[in-house]
Structure formats: structure tokens, C-alpha cells
Amino acid sequence: MYPVLFRIGSLDITSFGVMVALGALAGLWVFRRELARGGLPEAALDAAVYGLVGGLIGAKLLYVFEHRAEGSFFSLVLDRGGMSWFGGFVGGLLAGYVTIRANRWSLIPVLSAATPALAVGQMLGRIGCFLVGDDYGHPTNLPWGVAFPRGLPPTNERVHPTQLYEAAFLVVLAWILVHWRRRGVDDRKVLGRYFIIAGLFRFALEFVRVNTRVFGPLTVAQIFSALVTVLGVAILVVPQAKPAAGARVRA
Length: 251
Hints:
Shape: globular
Strand order of the largest sheet: 1-2
Radius of gyration: 19 Å
Structural class: mainly alpha
Strand content: 5-15%
Distance between the termini: 47 Å
Number of helices: 8
Largest sheet: 2 strands, antiparallel
């Protein structure tokens, strides 16, 4: 576990921060390729940039809300890990949605093009969570259990490395999304399937993660997962409106 890679004066350069930065760069690169594949304007990269900012803000704010009993607002904000993926998902999606609408780009095609980038960026972020010992699971006797003596919070018990479970899942999901798009699968199907698969996986993963239960046996992440899954189903089953004259149509 390498929570701090090096220091510049009094500034700690954390492994989590480096992996988030790499995830952002890799995500932008993948998104640019998918925009070109879909014949969409390169300027739509702006949606990713604003989505990244909105995602970071949302991820931190939801983390602070979930752990508000564990410390002061500023201590939680400055925590070396402390990012909630679903907060980032919602914040990034809202910021991206506003940007897409403001520029009158095609909403579903741009969001579909973003799905592999989201999976790749999140995968690298989850590796960062592993390196700082954040978001791990319950104790386990399995041979791949990991102890995080400098984790958030520290534990000397061997626990499920749920960060790596999710990272491995996201590698496969990113490959599947790119494969679908290369085959010309309809953008609505790609987007709806992404929401359903990502939502169901995270809902299941929460049962082995250490997290606060806020509604019976459910965590905040599971509630968001359920909503994301329902959104994916709605995208797939709600009839698509007929495009206006001159609008981009994809088979």
C-alpha cells in the first residue's frame, strides 16, 4: 500500500490523486476516440471536462455526507482519499448534461460515446482507492485478502479488496462497451446497458464492502445503484422520439 508517493515541500502527492489524474487523462483520450468513431464533434470533449469537475465535486460532497459523523467538514474534504463514486457519477452526469444541452449536441450519442471513458477512468480511480486503503470490504479468509494498516480507516485484518474487484469488472465492461460501439450497436442500447450493468454490479458489491447502512440493509451506494439501474431500463424500454428533420440518425 502506497498512500503517499512523494512530497514536494509540505505537499503530499498521494497515489490516489495520481491515479485520479491518470484516470481523467485516459478517459479523455478514450472519449475523443469514441466521439470520432460516432462522427460527433470533437468540441463535445468540453462535456467531459466540465463533467470531470462536476464529478470531483460531487464525489467529495457525497463522501463528506456519508462520513459526516466521523470528523469536521474540512477534515473530511481534505482527506487523502475520501471520494464517493456515485457522488462523482451524479455530479459528472449533471455537469455533462448541462454542457451537452447548452451546446445543442445530440444527448444520447454523446453520452453513449462517454461510457467506455467512464469505465476506464473509474477503473484507474479504483486502483488509487486500493493504493490508499480506501473503500475496502469485510474481513475474509480468502487467500487474496489484504490488510490495510494505513488505510481509511486502518485495519490489520485481511479484508476483501473490493477496489480491485471493481477495477477488474470495469476493465471487462470497458472492453464490452467499445466492442458494442465498434459493431454499431444503437446508442440508446449502449447507454441503457451500461447503466444497468454498472448499477447491478455495484449494488451486489456493496454487500461485501464496509459501508454505512442508511435504509434498512441498504447503503447510499445501493440506493443510487438501484436508481441508475431503473434509469437504464427506462432508456431501453421508453419509445424513442422521432428525430427532427436534419438530426443525426444512427442505425
